[in-house]
Structures are given as C-alpha cells and as structure tokens.
Amino acid sequence: MNSMKKLFPYIKPYTIFAIVGPLLMCIEVAMDLLQPSLMQRIIDEGIAHQDNSYVIQLGLLMLLSAAIGLLGGAGSSIYASKAAVHFSTDIRRDLFHKMERFSSQNTDTFGKGKLITIVTNDIAAIQQALIMTLRVFVRGPLLFVGSVIIVWVTARELFPILLVAIPILIIFIYYFSKKSSALYSNVQKAMDKVNTKLQETLSAIPLIKAFGREDYEKQQFKQTNDSLTNHMLTAEQVVLKLMPMMMLVVNIGIIAGLWFGAIKVNEGTLQVGVILAFINYLNIMMNGLMSSSNVLMQIARAFPSAQRIHQVLETDIEIKEIEHPVPFKKIIGEVEFRDVNFSYSKNGEYVLKNISFTAKQGETIGIIGPTGSGKSTLVKLIPRLYDPDKGVVLIDGIDSKTYALKNLRDSIGFVTQKATLFSGSIQENLQYGKENSTIQEMEEAGQMAVASEFIDRLEGGYSHSLLQGATNLSGGQQQRLSMARAFIRKPSILILDDSTSAIDALSEAKVQQALHQKFPSTTVFIISSKISSVKEADKILVLEDGMLEAIGSHEELLVRSKVYQDIYQSQRAREASRNE
Ligand SMILES: Nc1ncnc2c1ncn2[C@@H]1O[C@H](COP(=O)(O)OP(=O)(O)OP(=O)(O)O)[C@@H](O)[C@H]1O
C-alpha cells in the first residue's frame, strides 16, 4: 500500500481527469439503477391497468435513461484512460531517468531483465489498475449500494435474502483477491526470467549458432516459458473460479426470491413487478460486487508492480554528486591515486589494493597486467563510474568527488573495452561525444582514429546508418568509431581500455602518433595486453591481482618487474614463432 501511495503524486497533474471520469460514471450508474424501477412500474401500473400510453411513456423514459447512461459511460472511459495513460507515461519517464543514472552496481543488483519487466509489464499493470479504479471502482460499489437501498425501499419483504447472500459474496471476494496478489507476484518473477533469457539470447545469436547450441537454448527457453505459463495459469484459474461461485450464490438468491415472492404474491402482500425488479437488482448487485472484485484483484496485482517500480525510483544511486561541488572549472588532467582500494562485492574482497600513482598533465600512462588483475576497474574510478572504498582519486589535486559529475565527465574521453555504438547515423554517434560538432570536427576525429578511410567508403559517409549494436560494421571499425567519438571531445583525460585489440599494428601506431601531435596536453591512459601498445608510454603501471606490482618506463620495467618481464618474454616468443 505504501508503494502505491508513493505513486499518488503522479496522478496530481491529471486530477481533473481523475475527478471527471468517476463523476460521469455516477451518471451511468444512476441510469442503470433507474431501469428496473421503471420496468417494475411498467408491469405493476401500466400493464396491470392496461394503460398503454403510460407504458409507452415509461418505455421512452427507459430509452432516454439508457442513452444518458451511455454518454456518461463513454465520457468516463475517455477521462479515466487519459488520467491513467498520462500517469503511467510520467512514471515510465522517471524510471528511465533514474535507470540512466544507475551505477553499474545498481543495474547489476536489479538485473536487466527485471528492469525491462518493470518498465513494460509493471507499468501496464498499474495503468490498468488505475483505469479500472477510476471507472469500475466507482461503478461497482455505487451499483451495489444503490441496489441494496432500492431493494430496502421497494422490496423490503425480500431483503433478508440479501442479508445472507451479501456476506457470502464478500468473503469470496476477499479470499480470492488476497490469493491472486501472491500468485501474480510469482507471475512477475517468472516474466523477469523470460525477459532476461530473451535479452541474453538475442544478443548472443551468432555465438549460439557458431556453437550449434540452438536446441540447448530452445530447451532453456522452454523451461523459462513453461514456468511462466504455469504461474499464469494458476493465477488466472484462481481468478476465473470466482465468477461461477458468485453466480451460484446469486442464483440461489434468485430462487429464494421467487419462492418467497410467490408466497407473498399469493398472500396479496406483494406485486409481481417487485419480484422482477428484485431479481434485476440482485443481478446488478452481483455485477457491482463482481466488478469491484475485479478491480480489487487488479489492484492486488498492481501492488507488487507498484512496489517494484517504487524500488527503482527510490534506489540510492551509488555514485552521488556532492551538495556543493567546486565551481565549474577547466580540468587540466593531472590524476593521482592515493592508497586506493576497491571492492565490487563490498565484502572486503578487494579488486584494487593500495593503488598509488600520479599521472601528470600530458603524460601517457600504460596499464598492463594479467587478465582480471584490475586494469579496467582502475580506470573506471577516474570518471567515477565507481568510487573507491578506501583512499582517494585526485584530479588536478582535488578529490574527484568534489567536482560536479558533469564537470568531471565532460573532461574525460572514455573508449570502453567493448565498443558500444547506437543505432543511427555515424554522425549521430560521433555527436554523442560532442553535441553539435561540425563535420570538420568529425572528420578530424575520424582521421585521428584512422576511421575516415572506412567511413568515406561507406554509402552516405558520415550519414551512413548503423544497425542496432553496429552489427553492420566490423569489430575493428567499431573500435575506431568509438575512439573517434572520444577524440572529438578533445578531452583533458583520455582513457583507452584495450580499445585497439581489433586494430592492426600500423593503424594503432598512427593513432598513437596522432594523439601525440594533436593532444599534447591530454593525459592518456592506455590499457593493453600488448607490450607494443604501452611501450612508448611515459609510465607503465603493472598490475597483478589488484596490486601495483611495479611502475616505470618500458626499459625500467624490463629490469625491475617480474610480471612485465614474463609478459614481454611470452610475447617475444610468440612473435618469434610467428616469424619462423
Ligand atoms: N561488475 C563487476 N562485478 C563484480 N566483479 C567484477 C565486475 N567487473 C569486474 N569484476 C571482477 O574484478 C576483477 C578485475 O576485473 P577487471 O575487469 O578490472 O580486470 P582486467 O584486468 O581489466 O581484466 P581483462 O584484462 O580481462 O579485461 C576480476 O576478478 C573480475 O571478475
């Protein structure tokens, strides 16, 4: 309930729709309730006294009330859906904004599949619950209460039947609503799993084919899908059982009404029309209760959804901006790590241990070390994708946390290990690095990244469209383009995380030369597994098991660092065998 309440502010801008919708519904309900009374009068007064003009008059009144009810119902649907659709659109927008600010750790905690289910299914569930609440939740109780009052006033002799039927109906509804809430929560969890599996499979189709694992994946998907089917069936069946059970109670009520009614008619204390009206009102009442119970169930179903949505909206973003950052300043690019320790799991298992080094403005820092030694993690601390658990990262002599995140990140160009490009034109992808960059700037960056040669050959050049995941480019082309996207920012700090792994040695040398010439004052971090990529760096950090094993120039490390010597020897041996 609490999570549902927390979402209430989202309805505020649409209060008018949320008020007009139910008000119009009241008109429809009033007209619905009028009908059996009119019918009773037609039978007991018009037909019984053979007064044709009275019958026609009331018949026309019935038609008119039906038409007014129709208008009320249609208007109510329009306003209720407007309120609910805008309400969910705003929540979806805020969810997206929040997720966009998530740290990698935040995303890992939820899982991408669950996040997708939240933005799609869960939002749909609360939207549906709101529409139903605004329409049916007014209609149901009003029809119910209206019928009870009218039966009390017009057919009091039959009222005891309601006293027995109503509590039974209410117990059924309470029990089923409660049960369905728990069952739909299981449906959502199963849906998360389907989405996660789907996402994983879609991004790995070439791999699945290459390994011939289609059948295995089919089997895996079947398991996940079957589990969803089972949970859905269980939940739906529980809900569907309610209707016949309620019908049974109402039918028994009708039989009782006919039985007692017939006795009273024989005694001359009741008119036939009253029995008919009673049966009608009993049906209306059941419809009222039934639709209220549907809404209750929809709301019950929306509870877990609201909770999950609320959970995302309330998630504490791991990387926080300090309240009073230093005034916006141009960062020149001096980077210092002082006794930095970092752990992903936060259980004391450090991935980086006591890392200390300084990179002066304009220096090139190579980072090398065995796989999993912490190279990528180290550079991710510079733009504050993660914060150290102990120690401090200083940029231009001050703690990186004291900068406004935008100030800090705008000064950094980051080329990630896995080139990530967006669907859209090459131009749009480059402008992702620098908004409104000119074609000349794009060409310059393209040349630096040795990307222009392939871009110029593409149809449309910089306007050439990339498919999702840039699958219409080769791995090397993707890497060049993501480098150009970082270069176009003319950053003070440039991070190249193994970004030349799919690029030939000659092109890599060209990139490094261009960096020297065009970005002499940029501090460059180059992570690579190849000695040749870091050899020329001013300083090379050698990482081993999260620790800084050694630091120095290529020549110094060949003498001082055991790890560096091993890497060097193994690469030389490989080269020699290749040349044989
Ligand atoms: N998001 C994450 N959550 C938990 N652990 C992680 C995460 N990313 C990396 N790790 C762990 O941190 C350690 C260091 O990983 P990192 O990616 O920094 O190594 P690396 O030296 O860059 O490796 P490689 O050369 O293979 O890219 C590894 O043991 C890895 O399993």
Folded structure, characterized:
It comes from Perspicuibacillus lycopersici. It is a multi-pass membrane protein. This is ABC transporter ATP-binding protein/permease. The chain crosses the membrane at residues 14-34, 54-74, 136-153, 159-176, 242-262, 268-289. Keywords: ATP-binding, Cell membrane, Membrane, Nucleotide-binding, Transmembrane, Transmembrane helix, Transport. This protein is an alpha/beta fold. The protein folds into two domains: 2-314, Up-down Bundle (ABC transporter transmembrane region fold), CATH 1.20.1560.10; 335-579, P-loop containing nucleotide triphosphate hydrolases (Rossmann fold, 3-Layer(aba) Sandwich), CATH 3.40.50. It is 64% helix and 10% strand. The protein has helices spanning 2-7, 15-47, 52-101, 104-110, 112-154, 159-202, 205-210, 214-267, 272-314, 375-380, 405-410, 426-431, 439-448, 452-455, 475-487, 505-518, 531-534, 554-560, 562-579; strands at residues 335-342, 352-359, 364-368, 390-395, 398-399, 412-415, 424-425, 465-466, 493-497, 523-527, 539-544, 547-552. It has a six-stranded mixed sheet. The protein has a four-stranded antiparallel sheet with strand order 2-1-4-5, with no helix packed on it. Helix 2 (15-47) packs parallel to helix 5 (112-154), helix 5 packs antiparallel against helix 6 and helix 6 runs parallel beside helix 9 (272-314). The longest helix has 54 residues, at 214-267. The model has no long low-confidence stretch (mean pLDDT 88). It binds adenosine-5'-triphosphate (ATP). Adenosine-5'-triphosphate (ATP) binds at residues 104, 108, 344, 351, 369, 371-377, 417.
